[in-house]
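Entry 14. Ran structure prediction on the chain below.
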Amino acid sequence: MPRPVSYFSQKFLLCKPRREILTLLYNLRVSFRKSWRNYSTDKPSEFLFISWIRYDIILLMKSLKILKQLDIVSQCRKYGLSLWQCPQFLFLIMGIIIILTGLVAYAIGNRYVAEPEIVALIVIGITLILFIIAFTITNSFERLTEANRMKSEFISVVSHQLRTPLSNLSWAAELLMSGKLGKIEKKQTEYFKILKENSTRMGELVKDLLIVSRLETKTLSFTNKEFDLSEIVKKLIWEFTTFAKASNVDLKFKAPKKLSKVWADSFQIKLVIENLLDNSIRYIKDKGEVQMRLEQRGNKIYFEIKDNGVGIPKNDQKYIFQKFFRSENIMKYQTQGSGLGLYIAKSIIEKSGGKIGFISQEGKGSTFWFTLPITS
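Output, structure tokens:
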């Protein structure tokens, strides 16, 4: 009795969409289970036919896994990496380089070695060694990438789970401080204020972690539209006025009357300026000043914020946009902070088609700037 492999293999090749392939495998598995119950070992030919079907199902499942691994684009999307950072694509490039190296080694060996068998053994040995090294390196990269992806998913899940209880805690503290549930003493109000401040700080940390997680997994949505950047800055200055006065800091803003509108996500850009402005005010020791200005440079809008705060040490400047990094001199003046604000700002500006940078001198202050494309 001929093996029915050709029929199922043909069906597998014809079913290009993955959903159809999975449906075919499911139907085959169900048919096999029913047939296994109906037929017994007293019918050897029919029993053998069912065994062959089972073999084909296993073969198709393995083929599907192999095809999934060969789909480099989907693997790169899974890890949230660009093509040149994806382990599978790098392994493919390394494989091509190894093949070329083998051909060059064969050409050189064929010229200087008389016996072709020795040349073939040398080429095979070099190629195998290089392939093993390439596979080991790529496999290590893939494990690190998978661990990073799982870390990002874990942070995202935890952040989502923490938002609701923190919000409830903040509302409860506000309700208790209002006195609607009964008269409270002065000492109790102080403790409620501490509770409120800490819950707010935890809420900001959770929000930053959630944004970082979405940036890493490329799930942070950007709704680009044209808007006036100067209006965003003026609104933030008004919101930070109380905090600036409490910190003995003057806020100044300069912008031309006629300024082109930018093309970006206004909510995300507001978050960037908010982080920069908050840092500038916090890291001024005594009385200080924060200057902001806007100007148009070609097809870009240039934003700059300058302060006379503690500045950034030269040795720490290369790490300033990394996650969770905080300079040592900053820790002396401000213990609060997650070290995520500048990382978030850099990621948002770059995804918006702009650039970000800074100039800083320890003890004299810092100047942060970024550019955004104007509406075409």
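The longest helix spans residues 116-178. Will compare against last week's run tomorrow.
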